[in-house]
Design goal:
heterodimer, A: 87 residues, alpha/beta, 3-stranded parallel sheet, 3 helices, 3 strands, B: 198 residues, 5-stranded mixed sheet, 7 helices, 7 strands
Chain lengths: 87, 198
């Protein structure tokens, strides 16, 4: 997905990625514009099934990042799940 | 993951299971699995770049057209991408053929954003898809995006969202499919994209 983000940015489309911690290092290495990392499990980056509240919170944070980022490499963690070692 | 790593994973899992039984804190099992997922996929991988493109947002999101793209492997029932020409490939077969998928060029499924989620299917040999079948919102949140569009947080959703199987050839994605998809998206006057890798 990192490659697709880079290709779309080159076409003038602003992108934001919602990814899990499992792929954080690979996403970071690709120097992507905007990435929101969640602590959820692989396959469920927005949260557990039928947990609408968590999914919506993650989505809103991603949209906030889409609007706020001013430079490439804008990495954020979902605020309520920020690990102590982040940033 | 080496055999020794796998043994360590299961040994620690059993110890934590014992601890959880003792004190009722079963969340430590989830934390354990999550930590090992991170460990299993650690490292930069083969695709590292010193610099990257950055397209500044042209409009407020409330005036923008947004597209959703996921690598979850969702598709609309009745519009199966039929990988390798196989009709009604099962999730189990996709898991067996994961190496074939990883060598293949990924195929994009178009999904109208007004599609009822009950009509969505998912198949992807690279992860546990059960949650994504029960609730596509875990990786393909079209229902919540429709809510946010109705609330005005997003100006407009693109007519279609898109999904593909992310466990595909990254080189082919980079050289062939990806540039075509990016161009196709750009031609729809789309301002922004929400990308969800699984």
């Amino acid at each position: 997905m990192g490659h697709l983000a880079r290709l779309m940015e080159a076409e003038g489309i602003a992108t934001v990625i919602i990814g899990t911690r499992a792929f954080q290092s690979q996403l970071n290495a690709m120097t992507l514009p905007r990435v929101l990392i969640t602590l959820h499990m692989m396959g469920k980056p927005l949260g557990p099934p039928n947990n609408r509240e968590t999914q919506r919170e993650v989505l809103l944070e991603a949209l906030d990042l889409l609007e706020a980022a001013e430079q490439v490499g804008s990495f954020e963690y979902v605020a309520t799940m920020r690990p102590s070692s982040s940033k | 993951m080496t055999d020794a790593d796998a043994a360590q994973f299961f040994q620690d899992l059993l110890w934590k299971l014992g601890d959880a039984f003792n004190d009722g804190r079963f969340d430590r099992l989830l934390e354990h699995v999550n930590e090992w997922q991170v460990r299993a996929y650690s490292g930069e991988g083969k695709w590292a770049y010193a610099e990257g493109p950055f397209s500044p947002r042209q409009h407020d999101l409330s005036d923008s057209r947004l597209v959703l793209i996921t690598s979850s492997g969702h598709f609309v029932e009745g519009d199966d991408p039929e990988p390798f020409g196989v009709k009604n490939m099962s999730q189990a077969e996709a898991e067996v053929r994961i190496k074939d998928f990883i060598r293949a060029e990924p195929e994009l499924s178009s999904i109208r954003v007004d599609t009822p989620v009950a009509n969505l299917k998912v198949r992807h040999g690279g992860y546990d898809t059960r949650g994504a079948q029960v609730d596509p919102g875990v990786a393909f949140p079209i229902e919540i995006l429709r809510e946010l569009e109705a609330e005005g947080r997003i100006g407009e959703l693109a007519l279609n969202a898109y999904a593909f199987v992310g466990a595909g050839s990254q080189r082919r994605l980079l050289k062939d499919a990806g540039p075509q998809w990016a161009k196709m998206i750009q031609e729809q006057q789309i301002d922004a994209a929400l990308l969800v890798p699984v």
